[in-house]
Amino acid sequence: MSSDDPIPAPNDEPAQAASVWDQKPIVPDDPSPQLRTVLHFIQGLQNHDYSFVATTLSEDFLMCILPQSLGVPCRPREEWLEKCRRSSLVWPKTFRLDILDINESPGKVWVHGIGTARAKTGKSYENEMLMMFKLSNGTESPDGLPKVLELKEFMDSLYISNWAAEVGKTLNQIK
């Protein structure tokens, strides 16, 4: 156990999240290039593979948490990726996004889903969210796939505020 992991890992390894590609009928058999980028992004988050997530992002990517009343500042690409890498509230690879709906138009993909994970305190995380992606057209990319320019994530603010406060308090008491 490292100092970053105050609670021992569960004896049983958390189940790997199902592939986002298998969420039928929500995810089409032949997704558009921009939807493929978004699905790669989500799969990278589920796999806790931020190097892979980075390949889906434009150099000027910006991540914003909504509603703005939460007071969370928007973060540029490298700052957001580093924050993800350092996050210590949930066990790696326990995050899963169950996609409920996808809405797509040129340059935009909106994903409505339920994010689940397990905190290092053992507390379950289940938060409804809307992820609003703004994408490039792919002409700047060697593989021709669009890159994520911006992600606005709208979440259940009351739930996330209470959950983070409870988990953070428990972790601080253990340290």
UniProtKB/TrEMBL annotation:
Source domain of life: Eukaryota
Region (Disordered): 1-26
Protein name: Uncharacterized protein
Organism: Cerrena zonata
Record lineage: Eukaryota, Fungi, Dikarya, Basidiomycota, Agaricomycotina
